[in-house]
Design a protein that fits this description.
The complex is a heterotrimer of chains A (about 350), B (about 325) and C (about 525).
Chain A lengths: L1 E4 L5 H25 L4 H13 L2 H26 L7 H19 L5 H27 L3 H21 L33 H19 L1 H11 L1 H6 L4 H28 L10 H11 L7 H22 L5 H21 E4 L2
Antiparallel strand pairs in A: 1-2
Chain B lengths: L1 H8 L1 H26 L7 H17 L4 H23 L6 H23 L15 E2 L10 H4 L1 E2 L1 H19 L1 H11 L1 H6 L4 H27 L11 H11 L4 H21 L3 H5 L2 H19 L19
Helix pairs in contact in B: 2-7, 2-10, 2-11, 2-12, 3-4, 3-5, 3-10, 3-11, 4-5, 4-10, 7-8, 8-10, 11-12, 11-14, 12-14
Chain C lengths: L19 E12 L2 E12 L3 E5 L6 H9 L6 E6 L2 E2 L5 H6 L2 E4 L11 H6 L12 H15 L14 H14 L4 E5 L7 H16 L3 E6 L2 H7 L2 E6 L2 E7 L5 H9 L16 E9 L12 E6 L2 E6 L6 H9 L6 E6 L2 E2 L5 H6 L2 E4 L3 H5 L6 H5 L10 E2 L2 E2 L1 H14 L16 H13 L5 E5 L7 H16 L3 E5 L3 H7 L2 E6 L2 E2 L3 E2 L5 H8 L2 H10 L1
Helix pairs in contact in C: 14-15
The chains are: A mainly alpha (about 350), B mainly alpha (about 325), C alpha/beta (about 525).
């Protein structure tokens, strides 16, 4: 077989393959439900209901989507430049650490929130700067270094929570002291469990979209990602662009940590992120790296998680069904997106 | 310092080095075969998880240990087939597909585990491979007993490495694999199927990664728990680079790495361990891997067609 | 899998006088909207050399790739030695005794010559390689066919000419009885070409049959018995070489004879850029520049002849701003350059037409607009203070499309969809519109059809007449001779003295390309 590019794909092709990918994902979900002895339709219904069936469920989904928008944006920015940042998890924790450090009395109100957000971004950016400099200076592959740094960062957080940042009133649990009330992101509407972090995430998505489509940096990022050799030849400062991309990407991932600590949890613990950094890859890929599409993509992914949690309690299908579904959706979708652009031909 | 020397002189330390290196050797050989054929397999971490789980659950279900190894290999090859199908004929991003396969294999293992054992908090144990002293060699005074009293899977790891090296450098198959990783059209012009060679390499390589995972449950820890692979897959990718894509050097890298790992575990028990946080010791393997990558940068001879999909229709 | 290292030499004597060895019957192949081969039929006889002629894109390579099984034809069939050949199966083609020497060598640099030749010749599941026996057989073949090469050498370290010999040995090792050579002389010096023809004559004498693909008519006249001409995917003519001449063939290839652009005598001005004793480090097997001194003068085309891989890349990188010399000095006018970079080169008024328009010149998935401003996106009017002005970019692109007659769906179309000629025109527009003082034209017409070639050459001549200093790099000696006011030869990183237009014959330049002139120069100096 051979792949032949299609000059002008039809609308049917552009919609049909992604729809088929979605259908196949739902089919996999049904099969998983069957193996768990549950009714597939009921299971899917429960996931849907648990994700958006009530005000509580919907708010829960929005809350879960917030860090995913940030990490999804972080990944989409980096992957556009073919900078394989798989270390969003580490950058997220860097942001979270800074948020606790500055939010427990170091910076006074009213500066605390903006300063914390900015310094958190800086910390996340610095975490990615190392691997990127190793890549641009020495040619060390960033996939492995960013992946490995995730493990190092988690151990570092573990050390902090058992040592210097341990909450004296935490009754022995490895968690940090709580943030001061003025260092917390307020609720959007009093009484509803949704904080300003969500709006900040929407704002970030728009900002990234503007950067990518309207600025020279966005143009440079795309040029470097599509063809670094041609970009270098044409005078694009490839390494500088990669560093800028890394700073942006690391900063965005760190905002996820800032938003989770300051908006939701109020303290740092080792279970702050159930893999938001890795899930951000799925969010970004499902959004085809488009920053605005990251928002619905994150909502979908968050909905699958939240819905599966709730379904699992009711129907007894293990909650890991969510991860399987998302992995399946990712693999089917990248294939579907390819097939919208190419035709498989014989010979 | 005397602590370190004491540790290095103890036979149990060297026995541990061999033990720790074994799963890494399996998985590193698996990754090396994939990369020599031109495919980066980031599914390694998840494939090790599914191997650990499948091997363990098979034995837990009452099958013999070697059935467990076979089942793990089969499961790994299945996920290898998925990876290969998406990355070779369709030429999709090896980064994205690899991470997707890791996620899928990991979550499938966890899902199946919860399905089979919904309520347990501590996973049941199986009887793992017993140590087997090689007659003669294990009687050598000094390190003989330590090095040659290991489980059969450990011996298998070294045999696999040897066989990989022989196939790669001494057979037509190995020649073909080295060619498709360097310039696929060289193989295609000689009537070889690039697709078949690459897919075969990814499938077999994934099988070996899964056996590396199964080593953890069937030879090392005797039960399955979450996070047990804990980045070993990523470390193996670093080891392939450190070994400059050569089986012999990669085995040396795995042994060196295992020595540091065994050392850090023992150092934690010494006065140094009392002063420094234990997390620093646990982070050592990851930091060492990064250091290895830095040391080998610019020097390694990376296969020229690594991560380059081959589409014969491209004009 | 067809033969074994220990296999004996086959009996190659013709049993009947001149039987047909190969027959292609109405081969048709489409690539999307492009009809690459339109019902092409041809016959090859034992001991015959046929030339397949046609300009770039006429369908020659596609036809041979179908014959060899790399592509499957949409319709038509291939018969070799009286037996039908299964489509899409290179292994079957090899087994039938068809050997192909590709234009872009298909060799693995990390393997030795022997390993490359041995690749795929034995069952993948057989236990050993038996390198020693293979090396012996390769040595024997090298001797018989006059193909000198060291079987133990790593291919990555070989020169272009040696690599081609390895490619031919690959086919001979498999007992090929039909040899297909795709543009084999494109990368050779005239002397190497002559040696290749000697090899081909020996092969024919041993009973092999040869298909020779080329667009160089004088070579075809010298080696082929029969010429077949392809144009736009159709077979438009078939003549015995004895009954035709170059002009008739040229007219057949192009449809109507197109006169090459005329080069009027130059009126050289001052040197706009000078390289003084410039050296660059060797890159593996590719030599760096060895203390070269070169002036590029206004209103003059300086041609750089030489087999690729002799330092052209290094010189081109220096002029493009991608590299700096390890010793020596580049100066613009009389000012030595500092902070040299691609951007600095662009700002110094250097127009750069890169060797590889697909990989270096353009970004395939970018639109024409995005590609057109690639060198100047960071300055007004295309951007201000970091903000893009897409309207200005589109206006510029529309202008380039109109002035250079670029056939495309519009400025927003992805450049991947354009033909090579239109792609090159966009690059020309990008670099020529700002009115450059210096032009680097690296292989500017390689792979283009005659219309685009003529267009590119006319624009270069016009730029020269407007006062630009042009460095023309090409491995096609004919192109250099046709287009240059002044010729230098680059060999193993050394630069020959300047030769005036017409001062040296192609054969003499060939000696310089092979490095011989330099040796005479050295001995004379000593």
């Amino acid at each position: 077989m051979r792949l032949e590019p299609i000059a002008a794909p039809t609308l049917a092709r552009r919609l049909g393959f992604p729809a088929a990918a979605l259908a196949l994902t739902i089919l996999v979900a049904s099969l998983l439900a069957l193996t768990a002895g549950a009714n597939p339709f009921a299971t899917l219904g429960l996931i849907l209901e648990g994700a958006a069936g009530s005000r509580f469920a919907a708010l829960e989904t929005l809350n879960r989507a917030t860090p995913l928008i940030f990490t999804g944006l972080a990944i989409s920015v980096a992957f556009r430049a073919k900078l394989w940042n798989i270390g969003a998890e580490a950058q997220l924790y860097a942001g979270a650490i800074v948020t606790v450090l500055l939010g427990t009395g170091l910076v006074p109100w009213p500066l605390v929130l903006p300063v914390t957000a900015l310094v958190a971004m800086l910390a996340g950016a610095l975490v990615l700067l190392g691997p990127v400099l190793l890549k641009t200076r020495l040619g060390v592959d960033e996939v492995v270094t960013t992946l490995l740094l995730n493990f190092v960062m988690l151990l570092f957080v573990s050390y902090l929570l058992e040592g210097p940042m341990k909450d004296p009133g935490g009754m022995g649990w490895p968690k940090s002291s709580p943030l001061l009330p003025e260092a917390r992101l307020p609720r959007i509407v009093e009484g509803l469990r949704l904080h300003w972090g969500f709006l900040l995430a929407l704002l970030a998505a728009v900002a990234v979209w503007v950067i990518q489509t309207r600025t020279t940096l966005g143009y440079e990022i795309r040029a470097v990602g599509q063809n670094p050799r041609a970009a270098r030849f044409a005078g694009v400062p490839v390494n500088a662009v990669l560093v800028k991309t890394a700073l942006l990407s690391g900063g965005l991932a760190a905002l996820a940590g800032f938003s989770e600590v300051a908006g939701l949890k109020g303290h740092l613990s080792l279970d702050l992120s159930p893999g938001f950094g890795y899930t951000g890859i799925i969010v970004a890929m499902l959004a085809m790296l488009n920053p605005l599409a990251v928002i619905p993509s994150a909502l979908f992914v968050a909905g699958v998680f939240v819905g599966s949690d709730s379904m699992s309690r009711a129907a007894g299908v293990p909650t890991y069904i969510a991860d399987i579904l998302l992995a399946t959706a990712l693999l089917f979708m990248v294939l579907a997106i390819l097939l919208t652009r190419v035709r498989v031909v014989r010979g | 310092m005397t602590d370190v020397i004491d540790i290095l002189l103890s036979a149990t330390f060297w026995a541990a080095v061999i033990r720790i290196a074994s799963p890494l050797i399996f998985a590193t050989m698996g990754e090396l075969i994939c990369e020599r054929a031109g495919v980066l397999n980031l599914g390694i971490e998840g494939i090790m998880v599914i191997g650990a789980f499948t091997g363990w659950i098979t034995v837990y279900a009452g099958m013999p240990l070697w059935f467990g190894v076979g089942a793990a290999m089969g499961a790994g090859m299945l996920f290898g087939l998925l990876h290969a199908t998406l990355t070779v004929p369709f030429g999709l991003s090896q980064h994205v597909v690899g991470l997707g396969v890791t996620l899928l294999a990991t979550s499938t293992s966890y899902f199946a585990y919860r399905l089979i054992l919904p309520e347990v908090t501590s996973p049941p144990k199986i009887t793992p491979f017993a140590e087997w002293a090689i007659p003669g060699l294990s009687d050598i005074p000094g390190l003989g007993p330590a090095l040659f009293t290991q489980t059969p899977l450990t011996y298998a790891a070294f045999v696999v490495a040897g066989v990989t090296a022989i196939i790669l450098y001494r057979t037509p198959l190995g020649l073909a694999l080295r060619a498709v990783g360097e310039n696929p059209s060289a193989a295609a012009s000689q009537g070889l199927s690039v697709t078949a060679l690459r897919m075969g390499a990814v499938i077999v390589g994934s099988g070996l990664m899964a056996v590396g995972g199964a080593f953890l449950t069937l030879s090392a820890f005797s039960s399955f728990f979450f996070e047990m692979v804990n980045g070993r897959g990523w470390i193996c990718i670093a080891l392939v680079v450190f070994g400059a894509w050569k089986p012999g050097k990669a085995v040396l890298g795995a042994l060196l790495f295992a020595a540091f790992d065994a050392l850090q575990v023992r150092l934690q028990q010494t006065p140094i361990g009392a002063v420094l946080p234990y997390q620093l010791f646990l982070a050592m393997p990851f930091l060492l891997s990064i250091l290895a990558l830095i040391l080998m940068s610019r020097r390694a001879e990376v296969p020229a067609a690594l991560m380059q999909p081959f589409n014969k229709g491209e004009r | 899998m067809t033969s074994d290292a220990s296999g004996a030499q086959p009996d190659l004597r013709p049993d009947v006088l001149h039987p047909d060895v190969l027959h292609l019957d109405r081969i048709t192949k489409r690539f999307g909207p492009l009809l690459a081969n339109d019902a092409i039929s041809l016959t090859l006889k034992q001991g015959e050399v046929i030339a397949l002629l046609g300009e770039n894109g006429a369908g020659k390579t596609t036809l041979m790739n179908i014959l060899f099984g790399h592509y499957t034809a949409d319709a038509g069939s291939v018969t070799a030695f009286g037996k039908p050949l299964p489509p899409g199966n290179p292994r079957a083609a090899l087994a039938a005794g068809i050997g192909m020497v590709h234009q872009h060598f298909t060799l693995a640099d990390n393997l030795t010559v022997t390993e490359n030749i041995l690749l795929g010749t034995r069952s993948l599941w057989s236990p050993g390689l038996n390198l020693g026996a293979a090396a012996d057989r390769i040595a024997a073949l090298s001797r018989d066919f006059g193909l000198a090469v060291n079987p133990a050498a790593r291919v990555g370290a070989l020169s272009v000419g040696e690599r081609q010999r390895v490619e031919i040995l690959k086919a001979l090792y498999r007992d090929a009885r039909i040899l297909i050579l795709d543009e084999p002389t494109a990368v050779l010096t005239p002397q190497e070409t002559e040696a290749l023809f000697q090899t081909l004559r020996r092969a024919v004498a041993l009973g092999l049959s040869i298909v020779f693909i080329s667009h160089k008519l004088h070579e075809v006249m010298g080696v082929a018995d029969r010429c077949l001409v392809l144009r736009h995917g159709k077979l438009v003519g078939e003549v015995a070489t004895a009954n035709t001449d170059r002009h008739a063939l040229a007219a057949m290839m192009v449809g109507a004879e197109i006169a090459p652009p005329a080069l009027s005598p130059a009126t050289p001005g001052p040197a706009l850029i000078r390289f003084a004793n410039v050296s660059t480090p060797d890159q593996g097997a590719v030599p760096g520049l060895k203390r070269i001194t070169l002036d590029l003068r206004a209103g003059q085309i300086t041609g750089l002849a030489g087999v690729s891989g002799n330092g052209q890349g290094a010189l081109s990188d220096l002029l493009s701003g991608l590299a700096v010399p390890s010793s020596g000095e580049i100066s613009l006018g009389s000012t030595p350059v500092t902070n040299w970079s691609p951007r600095a080169a662009i700002h110094a008024g250097i127009a750069r037409i890169p060797e590889d328009r697909h990989k270096t010149g353009t970004i395939a998935d970018f639109s024409l607009t995005e590609n057109a401003i690639l060198e100047r996106y960071g300055e007004a009017p295309y951007s201000r203070k970091g903000w893009m002005n897409w309207r200005a970019a589109r206006d510029f692109t529309t202008h380039v499309i109109a002035t250079h007659d670029i056939r495309c769906p519009g400025p927003e179309a992805r450049i991947r969809l354009l033909s090579g000629g239109n792609m090159q025109k966009l690059i020309l527009g990008r670099v020529l519109e700002p009115g450059p003082k210096i032009i680097l034209a690296n292989q500017p017409v390689r792979g283009l059809d005659i219309g685009a070639i003529t267009y590119v050459q006319k624009r270069l001549i016009a730029a020269r007449d407007a006062g630009a200093a042009i460095l023309l790099i090409s491995e096609d000696l004919d192109e250099i001779i046709e287009m240059s006011d002044l010729i230098h030869v680059l060999s193993a990183g050394r630069l020959s003295p300047a030769f005036a237009r017409g001062e040296k014959t192609p054969a003499e330049l060939g000696l310089w390309m092979a490095g011989q002139g330099f040796d005479m120069e050295t001995s004379r100096a000593a």
